User: Fold these one by one.
Assistant:
Number 1:
Amino acid sequence: MTVMDHIKKRPHVLAAAAMLASGLMVTAPAKAQSETGVTATSIKLGMSAGITGPIAFASRQFSSYMQKYFDKVNAAGGVNGRKIELTIIDDGGKGDVALQNAQRLLQQERVFAMTTIGTATTAGILDYLTRQKVPLLFPGAYNTELVTPTRANTFALFQPYEGQIAAVTRWVYKTKGAGSAVIVRATPPSFDLAAKSAAATVEASGGKTLATLNTSYNQPEWASIVIRLKELKPDYIIVMTTASDMGRMWKEIAQQGAAPGKGIIGISPLADQAFLDTAGGPVPDNMIYAAVPATVVPTAKEAEDARNLSPGETMGLFGLEGAASAAVIVEALRRLGPDVTRAKLTALLHDKFEPFKVPFTDTVKSSPDHLMIQSVGVATVKNGSFVAATGEFVK
Amino acid sequence: MLLATLAGGISLGFLYGLVALTLILLVRTTGVLNFAAAEVGMLCAFITFTALTQFHLPALVAVLLTLVFSALLGAAVYCGIVLIRPADPLTLSLRTLGLLLIVNSVAYKIWGANSPYTFPNILPHGFVTLFGFNVGYVQLLVIAFAILISLAVWVLTERTKLGLLLRAVSSDREAAADLGVPVISVDLMAWCLATTVACCVGILVAHLFFLAPDMMAPILLAGFAAAQLGEMKSARIALVAGVALGIIQSASSVYFNQPELSQILSFLVLTVGLIVRGKLHDRVVST
Amino acid sequence: MKATGNISRFSRPATALPVMMHPVTGLIILALLLCIAPFLLADYQLTLAATGAAYSVAVLGVAAGFATVGMLALTQPAMMLIGAYVSLYAVETLGFSFFPSALLAIVAGALIALPLGWITCRLDKFSFAVLGFAFTYLVSMLMSSNLLVGITGGELGKPFPPADLFGIELHGNASYAALAVCVFIAYLLAPTIFRSTMGRFLIVMRQDDVLAKSVGVDTNLHRILLTAIVSAYGAFSGVLIGLASGFVAPPHFDVSLSISLLAMALVGGTRYLLGSAAGTLVLLVFPAMLNLPLVDRNLTVGVVLLVCLIFMPEGLLSFGKFVRIPRATPSSEERTT
C-alpha cells in the first residue's frame, strides 16, 4: 500500500489537512497589521525557567516575583491599556529543554518577547532567538555570551560573572586592604573568564593570587579543598560555584577552622539564601562579600516595594532581580506607546533608552554592549542574613 | 597535609561504604539490587524534616516515627514491586529503577520548589582532631554506624537462625519454600530492614551535606561502585573499597587539583577493581 | 541435537525467540509514520517528534543489547555525546559535510566501545551496569569541563549546524526528510544485523554461555561486536539529536538519561523492532506534546516503567495477539517463587 492509498483510506486526514491549510491562509497576518504576541488588550511574554533542578532556588523566585510585578501593573490598568501575560515553562535548568520551551513559546504560544532565568537555559536559546529575531529581555543569567558579542535582539541587566567579581574584589581590596587570595572555582568554562578577571583584579589592587583550586558541581567532599586552604592561609578566598556548593565549603571551613584572614568574596549566588541554608550553621559577620548585580540587597529599605509584592515570603536576591527585570520591561513597553513591535523595542533599548531608575536598582540606560546596568552592589552577612555592605553601587 | 588528606578520605569513604551497605543488605538477602535505596533514604530525611519543622515534634519522636515509616515503606515497596508479580532478580532490580524515578519526582513535587533546606541539628555538634584534621561527630557517627551495620549483617547472616533462613531463601527459593521456610515473611523482613537502614543513611547525609531531592547525587555512584567491588555480597570488602575510593578522591583532589582527573582515576580504579574481583571470583568458583 | 562444529545446523530450540520480531511490518509502519508526520503535526510538534525519532535510535541500540545478551547498556548517553561532538567537530573544524560526519561519528562510537566491550566479557551484568553509570558520568563531566570546551562548548553546549547535502543547507521539511531517512536506515539495518548468524550466536550466548563456547562460538568476540554495534547506534543517535534539536549540551547526557533510555527500551518491548519507537513515543514524545511539566514527565516514566515491568514485562507491543509468546524456560536460579 502506498502512502496515498493510506490517505485515501482515511479521508478525514485529507479533510484535516485541507482545513489546516485554509486556516493558515486565513490567519496569515496582513502586512504590518499586528505584531506577534501583541493584541489590543495584551502583550504576551514567555519565560523558560529552571524551576526544578539545580537552580530551583534562583528560578522560583525570579519567575514568581516577575509574575507578581506584572500582576501589580496589570491590576493598575496595564501598560498603555494592554495587560502583560507571562507564560512560564519549567526546563529543569537544562539547555536543550529550554530550547524546546523556546520553540513552544514562539510557535505555539506565539509570544512577543522572551526572558529566561539560568545560565544553561539562556545559552540554549540565545542563537535560536537571534535567528528568529525575537527580543530576549533581561534574563536572570550571567553568561558572558549575553553581551559579548553584542546581539541585536538581546539585552541584559545583570553584569556577567567576570564583571561582578572584578567590581566586588576591587571594592573589598580598597575597603579592607590588599592581601593574598586563593581562587576556588568550579571547573566548567562558565567561570573561566571570571577566574581570570579575579586574578587580574587582585594583582591590580596590590594583592597576590596564591593558587586556584578547582572543584566540580556537587563536589562530594570539601575537605580536600579546605586542607589546602589551611596550608595556603590566604587573606581572601574568592569563590565561584553554585550557592549550595559554597554553603558546603563554608561548613567545612568552619569545621576545620580555616577561615581566611580578611574575607570570602564571591559571585552573586553567594548572596542568595541558598548559601545560608546550606552553610550548616551561623556565618560570622564581616566575612562574606558577595556581588549583587544591578540591584540593592533584598533586605534594604529601597527594596520595600519589591518585598511587598509577596509579603508572606522572604525575598531572596533572585526574587529582587526578577522584579527589577520586570520593572525595566514594563517601562520599555510603556515608552513604546500604542504601537508595539519587536523592531521598535530593540531600537529603543539599543540606544534610545533614556536613564531610568526604580528605588531598588541602579540607573538603567542604553549601552553599546546592551548591558543596561553596569554596576553591582555588595552584600555581606550580619546577624545571619544579608545586608548591604555599602550604600553605593560599585563598578 | 598528607595525613589530613587521609583522614578526610577515610571519613568520606565510610560514607560511600554506608551507601554500599544499604544495597548489599538487600542483595545478600533477596538477590535484588535496589537502585532506589538512596532515594528512599532521601525521602525519609524529608519526612523527619517535616516532622521537626512543620509539626515541631521532639527529635527522638520524629526519628522514631520516620523509622517506623521507613519500615512500612519497605513493606509497601515489597508488596508493590515484588509480591504483586514475582520475577527474576534482574527484572525486580529494573522495577526499582522505576521506583527511583517515582520517589525522586514525588520529592521534587512536594519539596523541590524551596530546596535546599538546612536540616535541623539533632545529632551532636562538635569535632575531634586527627592529624590536624577536624572530624565532626556526625562523621564519626557515620563511621561507627557503617561498622555497626556491617557487623550486624555478618552476625545476622552467619550466626543467627534468621540469617540462616535468609541465606537459604536467597540461594534457592523453591527448595526453601518446599522445606517450609516462610519465604514471604523472610523477604518482607529483609526489605523492611533495608529501608530502615537507608532511612538512617538519609538522615546522616542530610546532616553532613544539606537537604534537597538531589542530595544523594555526589555519593551515589561511589556507593554503587563500592558495593559492586564487594560483589554485592561482602560488607567488609565494600567498606574497604569505599574507603579506598574516598582516599583516592581526597588525595587526587589535593595533589592533582583537577576534578576531571580525579574522576578518571576513580573510574580506572573501579574498572580494574571489578575485573580483578571477577577473576578472583572465577578462580574461587572453579577451584 | 547433533554436536557438530557448524552452528547453523543447530536446530533452534522451539522456545527460542528471534530478536526483532515482525521487522517487515514494523518497517512499513515506521515509514508511514515518518512520512505522514509533517502533514499532521504543527512545527513545534514535528520538532518534538523528530527529536523523539532521533532518541529512539539510541533506544534501539539499548534494546538490541538487552534482547540479545541481556546487556544493560548504561553507557549509551556517553556514546551519544561522543557521536554528536565528533560530528560537530568534523563539520566545523574538518569541513566535512553532514552525512560523512555522521559516518565518522558512528565509526568513532564503535571504536571507542571496543575496550568497553572487552571489559563486558569480564564482568557480570550488574558490574557492567555500575561501570556504565560511571562511564556516562565521567564522559558527561569531561565534556562539561573546560578541558574540551573548544569542541563541546563546556557545560553550556553548542548549537548544532543544519545538515547539508552537496553544499546546500537543508532547512524545514528538507531537514526533516534527511533525519527521517537516517532514522529509517537505522531501523532497517537492525533486523539484518540481529537475524544474521551473529545474531543467532548472541541468542545462544544468552541461553547458555558455556554451551555456546563449547560449540565453537567465540563469545568474547561477539560480545565486543555487540557492544560496538550498540554504541554505534548511540553515536548515530547523538548526531541525529543534534540535527533535530539544533543544540547539544553535555549535562543532559547523564546518568538519568541512561535510566530513561533503558526504560524506553523496556516499556516498548525489546523483542520488537518498533518497541524502541513505541517506548520513546510513550515516555518522551507524548509527555512533551502534552506540555506536561518536567517533574510530571519523570514521574510518568517511573510509573509506566514500573507498571510495564510488573504487568507487561515483554513491553507494550506484547499486548494483544502477541501476549501468548512462549518464553525460553528460565533456569531454576532465576525463578523466585
Number 2:
Amino acid sequence: MAEFLQFIFSGLTVGAIYALVAIGFTLIYNASDVVNFAQGEFVMLGGMTTVFLGYAGVPLPLAAIAAVLVSTAIGLALYRFAIATAAGANAVTLIIITIGASIFLRGAAEVVFDKRFHTLPPLFGSDPIRVGGAAILPQSLIVFAGAAIIVVLLWAFIDRTLFGKAVIATSANRIAARLVGIDTRVIVAACFALSAAIGAIAGILITPITLTSYNAGTLLALKGFAAVMLGGIGSAAGAMVGGILLGLLEALAAGYLSASYKDAVALVVILCVLFVLPQGLFGKTKVERV
Amino acid sequence: MMTGNLKFAAVLGLGFAAVLAAGPASAQVKIGAVLSVSGPASFLGDPEKKTLDIYVDDINAKGGINGQKLQLVLYDDGGDANAARTFATRLVEEDKVAAVVGGTTTGTTMAMMPVFEDAQTPFISLAGAIEIIQPVRKWVFKTPHTDRMACEKIFADLKRRNLTKVALISGTDAFGHSMRDQCIAVAPAANITIAEVENYGPTDSDMTPQLTKIKAAPGIQAVINTGFGQGPAIVTRDYRQLGIEYPFYESHGVASKQYIGLAGAAADGVRLPAAALLVADKLPDNDPQKPVVVAYKNTFEAKTGQPVSTFGGHAYDGLMILAAAAKRAGSFDRAKLRDEIEQTRGYVGTAGMVNMSPTDHLGLNLSAFRMLEIKNGDWALVSDSGS
Amino acid sequence: MNVLALFDRLRSPQRHRLILLIPLAVFILLLPLLFSSAYYYRVAALVFIFAIAALGLNLLMGFAGQVSLGHAGFMGIGAYAVTIGPTHLGIPPLFSFLLGAALSAVVAFLVGRPILRLKEHYLAVATLGFGVLVAIVFTNEAGWTGGPDGMTVPGLTLMDWSIRGAGAWYWIAAISFLLGAALALNLADSPTGRALRAIHDSEIAARVLGVDVAKKKLIVFVVSAVYASIAGSYFGLINGYITPDVSGFLRSIELVAMVVLGGMGSVIGSLVGAAVLVILPQALTVFHDYEHIVLGLIVMSVMIFLRRGIVPSLAAALGERRAK
C-alpha cells in the first residue's frame, strides 16, 4: 500500500508539472489556433532567469518577478515579430515558425546563460512529508497548488471579465469578433503574454524539483503537448486533467510494469484514448464546414 | 516553370559552393576537435571545449611546438553521431588536420573512428566506453577511464565494507547504460550479486517509483547509480526523500562540484570513484598527480569561473599527450605522431599515470581512480583502509 | 523526327514531368564538378538522402494534407533493418534493405488504419507518439540494437564490390531521389493523386464525391513510410553507425521543417528544404556559439517571408515578374 501511495505521489508531482505546461499551450491555441512549440522555452526562461539573477545578487522573490516579466516580454515579442507578421499563413507554417523561435530562444539561452544544470531552493524546505509510509516533497504540493490556482484564476478571468469574453469570442470566430468591434490582435497578443507568464511561473515552481538547463524546454514541450491532446485541445480543465493523467500513467507504469517503457506505456494509452475519443477527453467536437 | 527550376538548380549549386568555399585562413599546424558542446552531452562537451581553448592558447603563448603554432579547428556536433561524422570528414578532407582530440560521447566516437582510421589521422577520444580501445585500433586512443574500471573500483570498496548484494539504478543514456552493462558483466568475478536493476530516462524528474521498488526488495545492502547530467542529482535527492539508508554509490559521471550543488545535503555520505582532480588540494604533497591537477584546477577555475570537471581534465590529458608526442617526434607527421602517442610512458595527467603500449591505447590502471566520499558538501578521500 | 516533335506529342502531364525531371538529372550530373573533396560528396549525399525522406513526407503532408510528426520512426526502421539483418540474423545487406522497406510498409499499414482517422493536431500527436515509441524501443532493446550507444552498420557489398565512400553514396542517393521524384509526380497525376488533393481540400466533400478517403490516405501513408525507410537505410549505410536518435522527435521535426521550408506539395521543394537544413549547420559553424541563434532566425524568417515555402513562393514571385 505504501508503494502504491508513493507511485501516486510521484505521478501527481510529475503530472502537475505537465499540467502547468499544458495550460500555456491551451491558452494560445484558443485565441489563435497556433500550437506554440516555444512554450517549453518560456518555462525554461522562468527558471533560468531567476537562477542567474539570483547569482547576480538579486533577492530571489524579486528575481522571480523579473523572470516572469522577461518571459512575458518575450512572449509579446514572439507574437509581434513572428506570428503577427505571418498573419494568414497556414497552421503548419505557424508551427514551424514557433519551432524556429524555440531554436532561437534555446540558442540565446546557451549564450546568455550557460550549459550547466541549475536549481532553486524549494519554498518550504526539502524535508519530505511522510504520509502512510510514503514521502512527498512540500514543493510537489506547491506545484500542484500552483497549477490549481492558475486554472481557477484563468477560468475566472475568461468567464467573468469582459476581456475574457472577448477571448472566447475570438476563439469561436475571429471574423465575427472583429465585426463586433473586438481588436483581435490585442486579444491574441494578450494571450501570448499570459501564456508566457504562466510558463515562467511554472518554470520557477518546478525548478526545485526538476532542475533546469538551457535545453530543459524541449522535453517539457513534448510532454505538455501530449497532455493537451489527451485532455482535448481548447479546454484549460482538459489540459490540467491531461497533465495529471499523463504523470500518473508514467509513474504507475514505472512502478508496476517497466521503468524503461514508462513513456511508451503512457503514449500507448494516449493513442488508445484518441482512437475512442478522437477529440480527447474534454475536447469539443469540431464541425467541419465543406 | 522550366526556367524556374533551372534557376533553383543554379542558385542551389552556387549557394553550396559559396558557403563552403569560405574556409578558415591557413595558419600553422591544425589540430582538430569535434565535441558535443551543445545538446544532451553539453555537460561534458562544454568544459572540454573550454579546456582546449585555454591550453592551445597557452601552448602558443609559450612559443608553440617544434617552432610551430597550433590552430584549433573545433566543431560542435550537438551530440549527434551523424553530424560528428560529417565534421570528421570535414576535418580530414578540408581542414587537413594533423591529429584530432574529441568525440565527447561513445556514439560520436564510434561514428567518427572509421573516418580517422581511413585517413590515417591520430584520434584521441574523450569518451568512456571500453569498446573504443578494445579491440585496439591503430589510430584510435582514449584518455578517460573505462566504465569497467569504475565498476571494479566500486566493487572493491563494497568488498572492503563487506557488502555483497547490491541494486543498480541507471540512466538510459549511453553513459549510464554502458556502465550498467559493464557492472553486470564484472560482478560475478568480484563476488558481487546484483539483485535488482532499475532504469530511468536521462531527462526524468522523479525517480521515486524505481527507488520504491529497490527499497522494497529484500536483502539489498547498497545501491549504485550510473548516469550523468541531472539524473543522478535527482536520484540522490529522491533516495534521501524516501529515507533509504543503504550506502549509496555514484559513478564518475557526476565528478563535478555541480553535482553536490544540485543534490544539496542529500549528497552527504555518497561515495564515488573519481580522478584525483576533484580533490586536488587534499592530496598529500608527495602525490605525483598533485602538481598537475592543482595547476589545471586553478587555471580552469580562474579562466572560466566554473568549478573544475573531470571531463575537461580528459581533454587536457588528450591535448598534453598529443603535444608531448609531437615534441618527441620532432614533427607533426601523422604516422610519427601516432607512433609517439603509442609510446607515451609515465605521463602524469589529471586522470592518472598513463603508460600506453601497442596493446593498450588507454594506459590507465585501477590506481588512477580514487574512491571519494562527500562530506559536508565537499569531496573527501576515502583512505585505502576504507574509512 | 526530332526530339522536340516527340516532346510535343507527349500528353501534358508527362511533359510537365519531363520538364521537372530532366533539369534535375542534369543538375545531379553536373553538381560534382563543384566538389573538391569527399566532404562535399558526403554533404550532397546527405542532402539527397534526407530529400528522399522529405519527399515521402511531402506526399503525405503536401498532397494529402495529413501531418506526421513521427516520420523519423520509419527512417529508424529502415536504418536498423540494414544493421540488425546482417549482424544478428545473417541476412545479406541488400536483402535486409528490402526487408526494411517491406517492414515499414507493413507497420505503416497497421498503424495507419486507426491513426488516420484522427484529424489535425490529434493526428500530429498520435504520429508523434508513434515516432517516440519506435525510438524508445530502439533505445531499450539493447540486445538487438546496441542500446543508446548505437551499433555499427555492416558495409554493403553488391556482388563482391563493396560500396563505401561518399562518392558512391552521392550517386546512389541522387539517382534514388530522381526515381522517387518521378514516382511522386506519377502519383500526383494519377487518379489517386487527384483524390488526395480533393481530400486535402475537404474530406467530407471528397467522400461525398465517392472517394474512398480512408483507403487513399492509407496508401499515401504507406508510400511515404517506404520513402522514409529507404532514406533511413541509406543513412545507416553511409554513416556505418546508427544510434536510436535516428527515430527521435527532433529528427521528425527536422523532416517536417524540410517539407514546410521547401514548400509543401513541391517535389523540388523537398530537395531545397533538405538542402537548407543539411547545409546550414555546416555553413553556420563560422558563428560558433551563436550558431543556433542564427539558425532559429533563419528558419523563422524564411517561414515568415516565404510563407508558402521557398520553392512555391519564389516560383510565384518569378511568375509574377514574367507576367508583367
Number 3:
Amino acid sequence: MQWLVNKAQGLSKALNVLAGIAITFIMFLTVLDVILRSFRRPITGTYELAAFSGAIVIGFAVPLTTFLKGHVLVDFFVMRFPLAIRKTINVLTRLLGIGLFSLLGWNLILLGMDLYRTGEVSLTLQLPFYPVAFGVGFSCFVQCLVLIAQIFQVMGDSYE
Amino acid sequence: MSEVTIGIMGLATVLVLFMTGIELAFAMALVGFIGFSYIVSFKAGLNLLAKDFFDVFSSYGFTVIPLFVLMGQIAFNAGIAKRLYEAAYRFIGHIPGGLAMATVAGATVFKAICGSSPATAATFASVAVPEMDRYGYAKKLSTGIVATVGTLGILIPPSVTLIVFGIITEQSIGKLFLAGIVPGLMIAFFFICIIYAWCRLNPELGPKGERSTWKQRLVSLPEVLWVVAVFLLVIGGLMYGFFTPTEAGSVGTFAVLLLSVVKRDIDLKGYIKSVVESLRTACMVLMLIAGSQVLGHFLARTKIPMLAADWIMGLPLSPDVIMIIISIVYLVGGSFIDDLAFMVLATPIFYPVIIKLGYDPLWFGMIIAITVMVGVVIPPVAINVFVVKAITKQPLSVIYSGVYPFLLSLVFCALLLFLFPQIATFLPGMLMK
C-alpha cells in the first residue's frame, strides 16, 4: 500500500505549494496596498483577496500538516500501552478523523453549491464565495486520503 | 437528559479523547458536532461544522497568524538570532555569568521578530550552549537558560499566544501586544538578576568570558538596530492605527525578508523552508481555533459558560482567590494537554467569569500568557526542555534543575501583576485609546 501513502503525500504537498503561494501573495498584496494607500491609491478589494487567499493558506495546508503529524496531540498516555493496543487506538482515531473530514468535506461542497445557487459574492470585487468552499471541501477529501494512508502506516508499523 | 448534563458529558468526552492521541482540534470539532446534532438536529450539526470551519479559514482577521509565524521563521532561518547573541556577548560576555545573560539579551531582542518558543530554544541551544561550554559554564545553567528564554516570546510581541487570546476574547491585538512589552522585559530583567545572583553564590557556574574591544562592540550593533527598527515599525503602525494586525504582519514579514535578502542571509530555498514550516504551525493553530469554534457553539447552546460563570461567582471566595484557582486550572490543564490548546478550550468558559469579576481583559491575557510560559518548561509536556535535550544531549534532570530557578522570576512577575495590574495596562492605556 506504499503507493497510496505516496499518492496522499504527493497530493498534500501539491496543495501545500498552493498554500505557500497564497501566503506569499497575501504578504506582497498587503504591503503594496499599504504603500499605495499612502499615495491615496489603495488596491481595491485587498481585504477580500486576503481573506479568500487566507482560506487557501490554511485549508490547503491541513493534509500535509496531518501527514507530518504537525497538529497538537497528546501521545504520552497511548505510548504506555503495548504495541497491539497502540495500533488499535491509532486506527480508531484515524477512523474518527476520516468520519469528521468526510462529513466536513461533503458539507463544504454543499455549502459551495448553496453559495453558487444564491450567487453570493464579496462586497467590493464581487468575487464569488463558492470556489473557496469547493477548494477547502476538496482539501478535506485529500485529508481523508492522508488519514487512510496513515491507517496503512499503522498496520505496517511505520506510523509512530 | 438536560442540556447541561449533555454539555458536561461532552467536555468529559473531549478530555478522554485527548488522551487517545487524536489530534486535539479533531476531537473538539467531533464532540462539538455530535453534541450540537444531539441537542438540535443532525442537519444543524452538519451546517454548524461546515460554517464554522469555512468562517475561520476565510476570515481576514485570522490571516494575521500565518503572517507573523512566517516573519519569525524567516528571522530564524536567516540566522538573525546568532548575530543578536554575538552582539549581546560583545557587551556583557566578560562578566561572571555574562554568556548566560547575553543569551537572555539576544533572545529578548530576537523575540521582537520571532514568536516561536521552541525555535528560539533550538537556536540558542545550538549557538549559545557550545559557547558557554567553551568557558566551562555548568550544564544546568547553560541548558536551563536556553530552555527558559524561549518562553519570552509568549509575552513579547508579536506573540502568537496573545494573537489567539485576542481573537478568542475579541480584544485588540495591538493593545495586547503593548500590554505584553513591560511584563516581558521585566521577566527578562529578572532572568538576568537570577543569573547574576546564582553566579555570585557559586562563581563556578558561569566563569567570565573574553572581554571585547569597543570596536568589536560597535560593529555588532547594526544587527540589533534593524531588528528594533522592524519591531517599532510593526508595533508603531498598529498603535497609531496605520495598519490592521494583518497589515502589520505583512509589513513586518516583508521587512525581515527584504533585509535578509539584501544581507544575503536567506535565499529562495531558505524562504521556501520558512513558508513550509510556518504553514505547518499556522495550520495547527487555526485548526485548534476552528475545532474550538464548533465545540464552543455546542457549549454555548448548553449554556455551560454562563452557568459556570454564575456558579463560580456564587462561591464564597474572594475574586483574587478565584483568579488564582483559574490560573492553576490553566497551568495543570496546559501541562497535561497542550498549553495553547488548553487556552483555546478553556478561555471561552472562564472569560465570562473574569469579566463578571471586573478584571481587565488585557491583564487576564498577561496572566494566562505567564501561565503558558510556565507550562512550556515544566513536566510532563515541556516542549522547550525536550528541544534543548535533543540538541545538547543532556539528561532531562540536568535541564530541569537549571530551569527551576528561572521559574521563580515568572512566579514573581505573576505576583507583581496581581498586585499592580497597571504593569500590563498602563502602556496600552497611555498609547492606545
